[in-house]
């Protein structure tokens, strides 16, 4: 619970610094940190909400066509949240997107812990 308080404070700080509606890596990272934290305490609805916000910002920063590890992390976290809510269709969709992105980033023949 303390982590969530600190992540919310950092999100507010970064929004103050960079602008409320700005797509900035610091804001996207804070949103993803909140999504992961809420998944950890089984508040998957909030995890999905923050995860989608993070994914939107990350795609705006790196573009939809760019394979980036942070986008893959956001997709994977959304897959986890939907899986915990027994929405396996959405979970599989997000997890497959994360996997395909990681394969583009690290290569199909590369041993990497994220694959």
Structure description:
There is one protein chain. The relative contact order is 0.11. 76% of the residues lie in helices and 0% in strands. By secondary structure, it is an all-alpha fold.
Q: Any key phrases for this structure?
A:
single chain, 115 residues, mainly alpha, 5 helices, 76% helix, globular
List the helices and strands and how they pair.
Layout: H1 2-18, H2 25-40, H3 44-62, H4 69-84, H5 88-106
Helix pairs in contact: 1-2, 2-3, 2-4, 3-4, 4-5
Brief rundown of the structure:
With 115 residues, the protein is mostly helical.
Radius of gyration over C-alpha positions, nearest whole angstrom:
14 Å
* Main sheet summary: none
Gross morphology is: globular
Low-confidence region ranges: none
Q: Give the amount of beta strand, in percent.
A: under 5%
The run of helices and strands is HHHHH
Q: How many strand elements?
A: 0
The pLDDT mean sits at: 94
Structural class: mainly alpha
Number of helices: 5
The helix content, as a percent range, equals: over 70%
């Amino acid at each position: 619970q303390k982590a969530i308080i600190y992540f919310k404070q950092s999100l507010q700080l970064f929004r103050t610094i960079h602008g409320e509606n700005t797509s900035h890596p610091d804001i996207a990272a804070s949103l993803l940190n909140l999504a992961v934290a809420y998944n950890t305490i089984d508040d998957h609805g909030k995890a999905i909400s923050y995860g989608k916000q993070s994914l939107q910002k990350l795609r705006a920063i790196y573009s939809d066509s760019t394979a980036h590890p942070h986008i893959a992390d956001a997709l994977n976290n959304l897959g986890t949240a939907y899986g915990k809510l027994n929405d396996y269709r959405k979970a599989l969709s997000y997890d497959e997107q994360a996997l395909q992105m990681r394969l583009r980033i690290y290569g199909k023949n590369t041993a990497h812990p994220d694959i």
